[in-house]
Specification:
- The chain is mainly α.
- It has helices at about 15-25, 25-30, 50, 65-75, 80-95, 100-105, 115-130, 130-150.
- It has a domain at about 95-153: Propanediol/glycerol dehydratase, small subunit (Hypothetical Protein Yqey, Chain: A, domain1).
- About 55% of the residues lie in helices and about 0% in strands.
- The chain is globular and about 50 Å long.
Length: about 150
């Protein structure tokens, strides 16, 4: 059943998980008391003033995989499966060091690597970083690159 305010309820009148998640969007406004930065600092303590005062670290400005997965769940429930998939891959990639991630990004530009190198990158993403969805995406890209002649020779 859909309520006048858009919430979906079960026969017993309980709000469903999907509706609860949609009601918590955006996370920064509705879960600021439990949402944390990668440093563990509550996001409510992160402000321009704290930044100007030199009180923040890089990890205070870095999103957590949990926050990204929560955003992915909300996107999926709202009917945006591609956005949800992108956010799940982003959550996986938080385990990859930034310098390494930039190197990977550079190699994925058309004409930079061979098909075999792309497949090897996918294996590394899955094996070393546990980024299985991202690895599948890179494998799919490798097939497309090969079919369109976009791999290095």
């Amino acid at each position: 059943m859909t309520m006048d305010d858009g919430r979906t309820t079960t026969d017993e009148g309980r709000t469903t998980n999907a509706a609860r998640q949609a009601q918590s969007y955006p996370l920064m406004e509705h879960t600021a008391d439990t949402l944390r930065a990668a440093s563990g600092r509550p996001v409510g303590e992160i402000s321009v003033g704290a930044l100007a005062a030199g009180e923040l670290t890089d990890d205070d400005l870095r999103i957590t995989p949990e926050a990204l997965r929560s955003q992915a769940d909300i996107a999926a429930q709202a009917g945006f499966p591609q956005l949800a998939a992108n956010l799940r891959r982003a959550a996986e990639l938080t385990a990859v060091p930034n310098a390494e991630l930039l190197r990977m990004y550079e190699t994925l530009r058309p004409g930079r690597v061979t098909y075999g190198q792309m497949v090897a990158l996918a294996e590394r993403l899955a094996g070393e970083f546990g980024a299985h969805e991202t690895a599948a995406f890179v494998r799919e890209a490798a097939e497309v690159y090969r079919a369109r002649g976009l791999t290095a020779t």
